[in-house]
Amino acid sequence: MKILLVEDDKKLGKLLRLALMRHTHIVEWSQSGHDSTQKIHDNTYDAVILDVSLPDTDGFSLCRLWRQEDINTPVLFLTARNTVNDKVEGLYSGGDDYVTKPFALEEVLARLHSLTRRGELAIRPDSYQIGNLRIDLTTKSLFCGTRPMSLAPKEWAVLEILLRHHRQVVTREDLLDGAWPSEVDFKANVVDAVIARLRKQLHSCRGGPKLQTLRGQGFMLS
């Protein structure tokens, strides 16, 4: 999933971002209502994790504004407010679920998955068939027709992100964040090297998907 995280607490935001990326989500982090509104206007997200207390607005008003603009991305609120009235206000403002601080990271992940099960988000498949190529992410198996193929671990990590966003543009930064979340010293040219190896493997499968480089934008599996 591609997630917009709106949290002004830098320590908590960094912790949540890394935890979500380790679960192969692509995460864009915003620290204000103004910036997050720009992001949600310019991008498509599968879910928003929205802090209620922001420096320039409150999350309830922000969510209400988005709903008025017909932005229907599922919203999971994070807040220290834990009264029934606060929870009711959050749901009436257009939110889909509510987590009170302090919370366990596992609870946030579970509630995101709960939204998926309720049909608010697309269920993530673990098996894909793209043309003549069959991919199973659970068993890490790859077949061109009946011919088995093999990938290195980072090639698998990059392929999984591209599959989760099939026919969508994925930036180098998205791939760095998703495939190398704790390896901060890696540069974009490392992504290019893995992309080159992965492209060679995929393009060796006649009738399989194409891995495109879109200049100035990123990569797309089609």
Helix and strand sequence = EHEHEHEHEHEEEEHHHEE
CATH-scheme architecture of the largest domain: 3-Layer(aba) Sandwich
- What is the CA-based Rg, rounded? 19 Å
The strands making up the biggest β-sheet line up spatially as 2-1-3-4-5
By DSSP, the count of extended strands is: 11
Return the CATH topology of the largest domain. Answer: Rossmann fold
Number of helices: 8
Nearest-integer average pLDDT: 85
- CATH class category label of the largest domain: Alpha Beta
CATH superfamily of the largest domain: Response regulator
Summarize the model shown:
Keywords: DNA-binding, Phosphoprotein, Transcription, Transcription regulation, Two-component regulatory system. The protein has 222 residues and is α/β, with parallel strands linked by helices. The protein has helices at residues 10-22, 33-42, 59-68, 84-92, 105-117, 153-164, 172-179, 188-203, and strands at 2-6, 26-30, 47-51, 75-79, 97-100, 127-130, 133-136, 141-144, 147-149, 211-214, 218-221.
Give a written overview of the molecule:
Residues 125-222 bind DNA. This is Stage 0 sporulation protein A homolog. InterPro entries: CheY-like_superfamily, OmpR/PhoB-type_DNA-bd, Sig_transdc_resp-reg_C-effctor, Sig_transdc_resp-reg_receiver, WalR-like, WH-like_DNA-bd_sf. It is built from eight helices and eleven strands. With 222 residues, the protein is of the alpha/beta class. The chain has helices at residues 10-22, 33-42, 59-68, 84-92, 105-117, 153-164, 172-179, 188-203, and strands at 2-6, 26-30, 47-51, 75-79, 97-100, 127-130, 133-136, 141-144, 147-149, 211-214, 218-221. Helix content is 41%, strand content 21%. It has two domains: 2-117, Response regulator (Rossmann fold), CATH 3.40.50; 127-221, Winged helix-like DNA-binding domain superfamily/Winged helix DNA-binding domain (Arc Repressor Mutant, subunit A). Mean pLDDT is 85; it is low at 119-123.
